[in-house]
């Protein structure tokens, strides 16, 4: 009986903890990466939280899509992130740029595209710095 109650408690905790991790928002960003809007990116960025970071599958998928949307439209990504500087998850999102989920992400291409964005602000500088860190890490692991 104790095991049953423990199982119910863990299930309830897991559902509540990860219910804010909305996979549909990540899928929308993935499906529209070549036609992104500020609203799509805002909804996508809202999914990055400490709780969602602990959900491994969700975290891996959202990591991959962050790099994909940055490659597809770096200017809009920088613009929307810059507006979110005061949000709690701003640093979580920027930190992801140092840890791409797999080697299939073309960090050099993304770095080039971010550099080409004409806007100069702290968000762009931080993304560039973090991607350079990721490149350095990957080259040191070879």
What would you say this structure looks like, in words?
It is a single chain. This protein is an all-alpha fold and 142 residues long. The chain contains nine helices and no strands.
Low-confidence stretches: 4-18
| Helix fraction bin | over 70%
> What is the end-to-end distance?
52 Å
| Rg, Å, rounded | 17 Å
Assembly state of the chains shown: single chain
Structural class, by secondary structure, is: mainly alpha
Largest sheet: none
Q: What are the SSEs and their pairings?
A:
Blueprint: H1 2-18, H2 23-31, H3 38-45, H4 50-53, H5 56-72, H6 74-83, H7 90-96, H8 107-116, H9 122-140
Helix pairs in contact: 2-3, 2-5, 3-6, 5-6, 6-9, 8-9
Attribute tags:
142 residues, mainly alpha
Write a brief structural summary.
By secondary structure, this protein is an all-alpha fold.
